[in-house]
Amino acid sequence: MVKIAYNSIYAHPLPEGHRFPMIKYELIPAQLLHEGSIIQDNLFSPNICDSETILLTHDATYLDKLMQQTLTASEQRKIGFPQSPMLTKRELMITQGTIDCCHYAFKNGVALNVAGGTHHAFADRGEGFCMLNDMAVASNYLLHHQLVEKILIIDLDVHQGNGTAKLFENNPAVFTFSMHGQHNYPFHKEKSDLDVGLTDGCDTDTYLNLLYQHLPELITTIQPDIAFYLSGVDILETDKFGKLKVTLEGCRQRDAYVFNTLYKHQIPVVVAMGGGYSPDVKTIVEAHCNTYREAISIYS
């Protein structure tokens, strides 16, 4: 059974006026349950990630600021959210959810976190709606416990995974692959192991052909024990900030290709949703739900 990490706190950590970015986290599982793509047993609620595990990736001073609610106004502006105990709890729960998904992926081939993909978080700071880097924490957890030797992070959000790239720039056990808008946020790019910068207006065929070109070669060369897949839907032509021209169907084809390729090579995969900022939330939810539908179709 495909397992999915979700808790209602994913959608409700913010005061009124800040909730739009979060509402999709409530609507995604609701839609999947409504249409019968999943049942309640597919969902599990993670606990809070412990400090020892977080500190494998993040600095103690930064974690203390999150726990004690002592981020400066400037630090909060860079993150994009006002700090609160519930928001910190949410981040710790999402991070544990991604770790838990690793164990489910080893067993079932795939597991998905309704939130996560917080790839702009660095060791000592958060940026771009990201406070803790869940995939980096999960990667370091797996390496620390000697559960894997080689990890591939497939970051297909429209924004470069700058925090992830920086965290693993000197770690040969983790290969970071980011395919993103070259002229999009973050405007200072870090160096991933492989960066594929996309020009503004990149269409579906161009996008998919680049993915077809790079992903199989990476898998053959790296031979990872597990992959993390950040399946942002801000590549859509409807996205307010994405600057690309990928269709909804093209986004679905992207997900199907990633899953089929990893499945063929028997590489377990952990998925997190990443960004999506289309004006109509129904478009965002449909694109994210397609990710789940493809995973369930292939792995069930």
Structure explained in plain terms:
The chain is globular and about 45 Å long. The model has no long low-confidence stretch (mean pLDDT 96). With 300 residues, it is α/β, with parallel strands linked by helices. 44% of the residues lie in helices and 12% in strands. It has one domain: 3-Layer(aba) Sandwich (Arginase, Chain A). The termini are close together. α9 runs parallel beside α10. It has 10 helices and 8 strands. It has an 8-stranded parallel β-sheet, with helices on both faces. It holds the Pfam family Hist_deacetyl. Belongs to the histone deacetylase family. Keywords: Hydrolase. This is Histone deacetylase. InterPro entries: HDAC_classIV, HDACs, His_deacetylse_dom, His_deacetylse_dom_sf, Ureohydrolase_dom_sf.
Question: Briefly, what is this?
Answer:
The protein has 300 residues and is of the alpha/beta class. 44% of the residues lie in helices and 12% in strands. It has a single domain (3-299), classed as Arginase, Chain A.
Task: Describe this protein with a few key phrases.
globular, Arginase, Chain A, Histone deacetylase, HDACs, alpha/beta, hydrolase, 300 residues, His_deacetylse_dom_sf, His_deacetylse_dom
